[in-house]
Amino acid sequence: MTPMMELSATFIRQSIAKKKNVQYFVPDVVLEFIENKNLYR
Questions:
Q1: How far lies 37's CA from each of 16, 17, 31, 34, 41, in Å?
Q2: DSSP at 1
Q3: Within its chain, how far is the Cα of 18 from the centroid?
Q4: Which InterPro entries match (predicted)?
């Protein structure tokens, strides 16, 4: 199945750095890990 939109790791990292919500782009466990480790801030 073809994704409805293209996503990249760069997009995710930049969005987090801009304090945008990425909860719909990554699994909950991944978001929790990123937040707990303060990654990309």
A1: 13, 13, 10, 5, 10
A2: -
A3: 11
A4: Rossmann-like_a/b/a_fold
Q: What is the pLDDT of residues 1-41, one digit of tens each?
A: 666 778 899 999 999 999 999 999 999 999 999 999 999 98
Q: How far apart are CA 33 and CA 23, in angstroms?
A: 12
Distance CA 28, CA 18 (A): 19
- Contact 15/22 with Cβ under 8 angstroms? yes
Q: What is the CA 33 to chain-centroid distance, rounded? A: 11
Q: What is the CA radius of gyration of the chain?
A: 11
